[in-house]
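Two folds, back to back.
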Amino acid sequence: MLIVSHRLLIGAVAAHGRGCSDPAAIFRDASAFRLNPRPPLGHTTPGQIMTDDHADEKLLPYESEPERQIRYRFAHLLASTPIPPDELGDNLTLYLRRQPLTDLLSLDALYRMVLDVPGVIMEFGVHRGRHLAALTALRGAYEPYHPHRRIIGFDTFTGFPDVTAIDATNPSAVPGRFSLTDSYVLHLRDVLATHEAAEHLGHIRRTLIFEGDVRETLPCYLTDNPHTVIALAYFDLDLYEPTRHTIDALKPYLTRGSVLAFDQLAHAKWPGETAALRDAVGIGNCSLRCLPGRATPVYLRWGE
């Protein structure tokens, strides 16, 4: 994830550009960002019987308090940056933490895997659009004259449409989770169009967003584009049903060597993605791989 949400970043840059005397004021006090205090790990109240190991938060990955405070600190530093607005975009790596840097390096590694594979790149679960923007920039670096390398994002932008029983084990898995405002979607389209305008083939629209339930929008896209071959598919849908449906829909459009990457595979908090791959493909029928030293994404090469 980025060091701060795009909304906070945009607000900070806008405030700085307007000459706001205290751009950091657009951020709430760090304490307002904190989650509710956690009970002691493994603690049970009188009469409570732990029948599920997942009741012990120590078994699940989560952000530590020092990590959280560092993230807030960088958010404050970015909001109060002395860097002029016209130079800020070229200096954002000054505030880039290890985690988002690792994410960018992972995308770079995945992109390089498919340089010799024809077809489009798809992301399922766009949210703020950081991956779409990064992939568009990588296309400009590695394949500036490739007219057929579309980068396509699918998202409801209104959050999870529904949740099944296997996903409900995570209290964050509720309908509407990760919803964004209509104005943000418009902003994202503007950002991506600006990225494309800087490309050598900027007159060809090659980065696309499809808004709505992927179970409806993806079949429509594939029907309208029967020439589709998929080089890279990045899954960040979190939930079982849309992930399973998407894998099934993509199968006829994959070629040997296509890369399928999963953001929450083998993740205890989000079991639906793993279950979807197991049911759609069979984990024993493919070789799952991690990038060296990184827990996510997990990827496979189709047919290999």
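---
second:
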Amino acid sequence: MTHLFRPATALAAAAIVLSSCSTVNTAIDRSMNVFRGKPKAATEETLPADAPGSLDASGSATAPAPTVTAPVNARWNHAVMMVEVNGTRRRVVIELKPDVAPKTVANFKKLISRKFYDGLAFHRAIRNFVVQTGDPATRSDDQKDQWGLTDVGYKLAPELKGTHVRGAVAMARPGDIDSPDKQSSGSQFYVCLVGQKRLDGNYTVFGQVVQGLEVLEAVSAVSVDTNDTPTRRVTIQSVRLVAPDSPDLQAEPAAKRKTKPDADKGRLERMFDRIW
């Protein structure tokens, strides 16, 4: 496999059928890697070493999760992500799980507060498997050969209590060769479009999509290249934390939720997408 961090759909299917095969287990584990090779050097996007949930040189956590004295929005546990897919701006709501992965949730909130995810693209989309984002290189189409290779420049301690149910949100990471202690990427995360029980205990699950999973399913159905990277940019316009009583948490009308994948559109529909 040329790009270790991007799995083939066939591997995902094989893991279900051949759950007792250690060879398949290894292949699936490598398939979820963040990096194709050695992690790249930190860029100007890198956060300070004391970012919540980050690790020092010894591998120990350097900062605790936010306390009750943190700003009120740091205690909010719903994130609204606006995604532009197929020419339409759509909403995805993620419920964060600080009881399951407190350090990872604290780090995710820190990145949201810095608008880190705003303007990034989905660099990986596999139908009936996962979609993945969080690489700062995806801000620029000129760096497409680097998509999937970079992050904020630090790793997070593993928090492995969560389960990979449909809609689970989890941190990606390098494979066991580069990360035998299962440390997570500081910024890249993926969303399971179907249950992936075989990944339990190997990746940090820190949230759950509670609204808009069909939007991410539409992302997974767009045309992709041989690296499972969408050929047409799918952008995260913004991610923000919202209060529990926010109107943003109200379900969208059914008619508005319809987002047809590119693969299911006719030539005329695709032409209008380009125009509008």
